[in-house]
Input
Amino acid sequence: ALKDPDTRSIAESDAQILLEQFPGMSEVSNVYRLLAYAALEKEPRQYRTAADYLIRLRDQSNEAEDLVETNRLIGDCYFLNRDYANAVDFYSAARSRENESRRNGDLLLRLISALLRTGLIDDALKLIDEGDFDNNISSVDRWRAEWNIAQALQISGQTDRALGRVRLLLQDSDTNSVPTVLNLRLLWLESYLSLEANQLEGLAGRVMRLLTRLESMPLQSKDGLDVLNLNERIILKTEILLLQGSIYMREGDINSGMLVLTQLREEFASSASAQRSYLIEASYHALVGDFVSAQTTLTDLAQKYPESPLAPQALFEAALYCERRGAEYYANAVILYNDLAERYASDPLFYTARLKQGNLLRLINDFAGAQIIYENLINSFPSHRMRYISELSRADCILALSGNDAADLDDAINVLERLLDLPNLPLDFQAEASYKWAFSLAKRQS
Output
């Protein structure tokens, strides 16, 4: 029954009956294993439930090898459930049971990844450095771990520190002991971090040599084993081309940069790198104050790749650049924000786009239209973390439209009074809402 999705629930039901009626049976370990498997086969997958059964399975054994494997599986369940702190605990428990002479690099990478997602970057660094010092971490595992470390450092704003570690790794390691694709990726990462740190000296030449090396590599070695498969080659080439174009742009060589980005878009039109190239181009145009070209570039991205996860971001940034062109273009920006909201209603940018749309409508004196937008946000997202902004903006619209109408003023006063009862309001927001509440009361009395 377990093997067939249509009858899996029967197996799960029978297993539960066994647990309830025969909790001390000798085969209880297999029952826990079955229930954990069933939880992982459901949609959506029930990682926490599976972890609970695996913990009960683990408690049935005292064998070190079983404890290592089961703790690893429990850690995987918590990791996939985004409970990284618990994942760290179980990966650590598994690693503590490992035989020192047979350390599992895959388990080490799991533990490092969980530590990084928990924000414990220094703990992950200590783990890598200790393993390297004790010589119980392979070159491949060290390089993979350093890749994850460098990304975490860069995301946390420590780009220089990330760059330093990657450079030290490349200088001190034997590149022949790691797969070619990993070596190329780390070389790309060093160049990317150099650009992020604005260390441009010699960078264009290094990237050109990296591209030349990649293009000169055969797909297969003489013994017929893949050195670099086609998919890996395409990913690396597109990322290197994007980096090369970005470097030229940063150096102010717009012609060379656009030649590279155009090549990327023509040869690898469906790649993620080709899509991101429009963001690079738009950033350059904005940097030199050409907001028209920045806006056009981003709307081109949204039109050419409407299904891309970057399309909502492109429309949002295009609207921002449109705003920066001046008040006479606010109506155009409203259209862009509206386009984003109508086409990508489930995107995280939806709420902010509607707020921006309402704010611009107020700036062009369309308070009625803005009020409708705010009311729709309040009604559709009653628990949204930015609801208080919609509430205050709605009150502004009511005040603007009220004139001396007592009923409308009472409505605004009630909204502002309720706002101040909300918990955890930012202090500046409390001050603004209090001022407008007092202003409304004074206006009604006059």
